[in-house]
Amino acid sequence: MKRALLSFLAIVAMAIFLNLLDFLPRRVTAPFLAEAASPELDVLKVEIEKLLKDMEAGAVLDKGWAAYRRGNYSTAYREWLPLAKRGNADAQFYIGAMHDEGIGVTQDSAEALKWWRLAAVQGNADAQINLGLKYEKGEGIRQDSAEALKWFRLAASQGIVRAQLKVAVIFLLGHIVPQDFSEALKWFRRAADQGNAFAQFSIGTLYGRGAGVPKDDTQTVKWYRLSADQGLAEAQYYLGIKYMAGEGAPQDHVLAHMWLNLAASRLPPGQGRDKAVEGRDLLSRGMTADQLAEAQRLAREWKPKSRSKLKKGE
């Protein structure tokens, strides 16, 4: 932090110095400029100008957000619009969102798409995924699944989890492109590395079925556990089944009961919950009183972990 602050102050000092040169008499500055002129100095000047513009844009964006949070949407719009017209991608995204939702302006899907496209072309990931969703659903624009995938992939490449899941599911189902489990696994893994529970569960399922990877129950249990630890009920159910059968992990009826019990309490009414209850009750009949008490204690004291991830080297 201290080093970053010193670097920032040095840049500001240089900017002030370079600006002062413009006001000094030519006879004073000429000798210095003759000695100091270099490609490096030109690059530095360009970088300083860019930094100052970014700082100015950041201040305008902040003013807009302050107004937005107060509910002064028209003021926020007025702050952001000139910046958007000058090409700021963040401002373009915000203006597009306001038109899409009709916040502070009349709802206008075409105008939202116009601004989102401008931002998306510049690499704004939020605009890219929103544009993809519009193409996917055909909202305000002709439905185009291939175009939707293009924008999803661009956003996914920038680390947007929602986009990574979209791309993964598209390849998993093979509705737009040929089914490709390996490609689906790649994108699920990127989302899972960021702690997404659904992606972790999906990877476990692919390992369990040998889809895109060799079948490996040990890997299945590992990924189910990461997902179950975060509270995904489906992962808790299937993890319980694995412990019950001793597949991918030593058979453990206490842990199996615990996970099935948690799944039964979290799954919505229907077949999934009924199967979890059935499995839990079946285990109960073959467990000792001590085992049952321990399983119930573990379930009672369990708390979800936030964004559970693999540790380095796992």
Q: What is the CATH architecture descriptor of the largest domain?
A: Alpha Horseshoe
The CATH topology of the largest domain corresponds to Serine Threonine Protein Phosphatase 5, Tetratricopeptide repeat
Shape: elongated
CATH superfamily of the largest domain: Tetratricopeptide repeat domain
Structure description:
There is one protein chain. This protein has 314 residues and is an all-alpha fold. The chain folds into 2 domains: 36-158, Tetratricopeptide repeat domain (Serine Threonine Protein Phosphatase 5, Tetratricopeptide repeat, Alpha Horseshoe); 184-314, Tetratricopeptide repeat domain (Serine Threonine Protein Phosphatase 5, Tetratricopeptide repeat, Alpha Horseshoe), CATH 1.25.40. Helices cover 75% and strands 0% of the residues. The longest helix is centred in the first third of the chain and has 31 residues, at 39-69. The chain is elongated and about 70 Å long. The model is unreliable at 1-24 and 46-52 (pLDDT under 50).
How is the topology of this model organized?
Blueprint: H1 2-23, H2 26-36, H3 39-69, H4 73-85, H5 89-101, H6 109-121, H7 125-137, H8 145-157, H9 161-173, H10 181-192, H11 197-209, H12 217-229, H13 233-245, H14 253-266, H15 271-284, H16 289-301
Characteristics:
single chain; 314 residues; mainly alpha; Serine Threonine Protein Phosphatase 5, Tetratricopeptide repeat; 2 domains; 16 helices; elongated; disordered N terminus
Give a nutshell description of this structure:
This protein is an all-alpha fold. Helices cover 75% and strands 0% of the residues.
